[in-house]
Amino acid sequence: MTPFSSVMTLDAVADGFAAHVPGDWLQGRTTYGGLSAALCVEAAGRAFGGLPPLRSAQFAFAGPASGGLRIETRVLRQGKSSVFAGVDLFGEEGLATRALLCFAAERESALAYENLAPPAVPGPEVCSPILAGGPVPAFMRHFDFRQAGGHAPVSGSAEPHYMFWIRHRDDPVAATPAACLALADAAPPTAMAMFNAFAPVSTMTWTVDFAGELFAGGLEWCLLESRAERVRGGYSRQSTRIWRADGTPLLLASQCVAVFV
Question: Per the database record, which ranges form the Acyl-CoA thioesterase-like C-terminal domain (predicted)?
Fold first, then answer.
């Protein structure tokens, strides 16, 4: 399998960057959405040196990211402590992903509050592997999944709720924003817990907020909890939280997913 670090190799071209995504990182015939997001963030980091930490990111998956990929970056606005950047990723059929990225340095503040305690679950070493084979997209074989609670995909559950331990299979993977994004989108959309058989799904938009300056060391096992608040009319709205194994919050995300059931 192609290592994640190899896929993040970008070639500088006249109008931005070019990327090649091998078949083992595809979801059907298109690039896996989490990888498209990771490529956008990686390109911004290379284009603009000295950026503050990535605080928040919004992605619109407008079309298929297939064939040779081209990435264009631009600074939208730069202030004293923050930089807003726009990134467009193009496939052979046109615009595939549009990203809005907010990079912002930490500032002194009199306020401090956090309500992001992880759920109590067994450790990954005693949880059963899941999504290790069968009819899963090619890219999922780059990740390990252990079920820590909730329900499994395609289990016919009445409640769309996951709790997984997840990690990159590459060893080691640095805890960069790009690697965190690739990991955060690896689990199937939570609405698939309600499915009785595999059926197409497609993420339309994805918003990710990072929980502080946490990009240090390697990216080991992380705990993911995801819940769909509303599944109706062919769309699902889900919220996801991810923690490191020591309980440190990594990110929060929300997603709009088209479900074809």
Answer: 133-259
> 26 Cβ partners below 8 Å, 6+ apart?
32, 137, 138, 139
Number of other CB atoms surrounding residue 39 within 10 Å:
27
More confident residue, 135 or 183: 183
- Its CATH class, for the domain covering 4-105+127-259, is mainly beta
Q: What is the pLDDT of residue 215?
A: 63
Pairing of strands 54-61, 201-210: antiparallel
For the chain, where are the alpha helices, taking DSSP H only? Answer: 4-7, 33-47, 177-184
Is this model's pTM higher than 0.85 or not? yes
**Assigned token pair, 79:** 């202030």
- Report the C-alpha gap between 198 and 164 in whole angstroms: 19
What one-character DSSP code corresponds to residue 174? Answer: B
Instruction: Please check whether residue 247 is in contact with residue 219, taking contact to mean a CB–CB distance below 8 angstroms.
Output: no
CB-facing half-sphere around the CA of 134: CA atoms within 13 A: 8
The answer to whether residue 191 scores a pLDDT higher than 90 is: yes
**Beta bridge pairs of residue 61:** 97
The domain segmentation of the chain, as residue ranges, is 4-105+127-259
What is the Cα–Cα distance from 105 to 53, expressed in whole angstroms? 6
Contact 154, 195 (CB under 8 A): yes
| DSSP-assigned letters across all residues of 83-148 | EEEEEEEEETTEEEEEEEEEEE-----S------PPP----GGGSEE-SSSSS--GGGGGEEEEEE
